[in-house]
Amino acid sequence: MRGDSMAGTAPPGLVWILIEYRGGWPPNGFEGLNLEAGTKALVLAAARTANARVLLVRRPGTRRRPGPGRWAVLRHQSSGAYLQLWGTWDRDVDLAQIASALASPGRPGFPPVILVCAHGQHDACCAVRGRPVGRALGERWPELVWECSHIGGDRFAANAVIVPDGVYYGGLDAESSVATVGEHLSGRIHAEYLRGYTDLFPPQQAAVAAVLGQFGPAGRNDYVVTETVREGEYWRIHITGRPPRPAHIDVELQARRSPPCQLTCLAPAVGSVMVYEPTSIREARRW
Q: Bridge partners of 238?
């Protein structure tokens, strides 16, 4: 990694479709699989309607698990509720259940799912850096951890996203991933490896990361963005916190373009991205 700023780089998403696929993953993931055409089209159409991300998953390591594959639909609700539905599939047509699941509200009470990008056919960095992280996390939480297809941000590999919480982490290795995810599962999200929350826009993500960096770790729903104002390249974000966190925080950020660079291992040309730099973080009073 070059040390690029990660805050504010989580892609948006509130709904995830996970499909266990133990064979090779094509570069474009689910869309590239040789599945029954009607079923694949049904799943993709339902995913587009629900604005859902479709990810292929498999357990870390080389051991092949017997039995049918699993699928899941996971949702992050604006209320903070996390809902999931799980099923199994033996035949391609069994995946049609996903379309029905997307029309269902889902069920609470499931533990979160830890996804580690290890999609080598999409970008070699993800496999080289992601697989050791997947193994380390899988040894610690074997029932929660899956390798997954491309989730974005190859230059930050190893990347992980915890769903349906919708929290992206990047720049992980085996040691830091276990510590970071352990803290997350204990209700303490740290700023160090945080890319952002998927229900927020990039400047809002960067503002929350700045608050966590200044005031210390907090739970996923302990801070809420309540106001966002843009003036050219400057942003003002107001954040409210739950006790014992500060009740009101104002964050100011400046947006700028990064210098041109190669953004991924396989990028054919250099590119530039938007970076949001905090210029002020202060507690505010509201009467």
A: 227, 250
